[in-house]
Amino acid sequence: NAGVTQTPKFQVLKTGQSMTLQCAQDMNHNSMYWYRQDPGMGLRLIYYSASEGTTDKGEVPNGYNVSRLNKREFSLRLESAAPSQTSVYFCASTTGGWEKLFFGSGTQLSVL
Amino acid sequence: GQQLNQSPQSMFIQEGEDVSMNCTSSSIFNTWLWYKQDPGEGPVLLIALYKAGELTSNGRLTAQFGITRKDSFLNISASIPSDVGIYFCAGQRGGYSGAGSYQLTFGKGTKLSVIP
Known about the structure:
Chain A is mostly beta strands. Helix content of chain A is 0%, strand content 49%. Chain A contains no helices and eleven strands. Chain A has strands spanning 4-7, 10-13, 19-25, 31-37, 43-49, 56-57, 65-68, 74-78, 87-94, 102-103, 107-111. In chain A, a hairpin with a 7-residue loop joins strand 9 (87-94) and strand 10 (102-103). Chain A is globular and about 40 Å long. Chain A starts with a strand and ends with a strand. Chain B has strands spanning 4-7, 10-14, 19-25, 31-37, 44-49, 55-58, 61-65, 71-76, 85-92, 105-106, 110-115. By secondary structure, chain B is an all-beta fold. Chain B is globular. In chain B, strand 4 (31-37) and strand 5 (44-49) form a beta hairpin. In chain B, strands 2, 4, 5, 9, 10 and 11 form a six-stranded mixed β-sheet that branches. A five-stranded antiparallel β-sheet of chain B has the order 1-3-8-7-6, with no helix packed on it. The A-B interface holds A 4, 30-31, 33, 40-45, 48-51, 56, 58-59, 90, 92, 94, 97-99, 101-106 and B 1, 4, 6, 9, 31, 33, 40-45, 48, 88, 90, 92, 96, 98-100, 102-109.
């Protein structure tokens, strides 16, 4: 009964380093999302994947890439991390509507 | 882009008090949602509202979809310590037309602290 699992939970990077945030869901959901949350801000959509094999940009996609590896997994990659990407990142998934949008517990990323 | 103005930003209340928070927008939304986020966790849906004027309860929580479709409020009655967290409103404009339509617009949150 894991739901949406994100790894790692915490990460510190130096400017220019790259890393991939992993997300997996075990609810057989079709659609998956990556959001970022900054202090005093609401969640903002980075990228989403309507179904396996498709990805689309959200509100703030610059500096990120995504891969929908299979139905379960949706990863977020930072190719060259910048301090402006310091944030908490949330993965979410759904299959039937916004009332069924489930969030993971987040990855706290600091870029120095 | 669309913005939701959520107020207050934070509040400190005594245990047992009632709480009220609201969201307003310059745009019309067809769905309003209220989420709660506990420290170190992702948001969890509390209440979903689907039509103007709708009043929905979930235990001690009550939320309403404004008649103008540009606002919503959330009330918590008889607060308890576990109500501590950040409450977010979120709006969604259109009907389903693909996963992109699940692009919710989130408010900035109301941080609630309950003093025992």
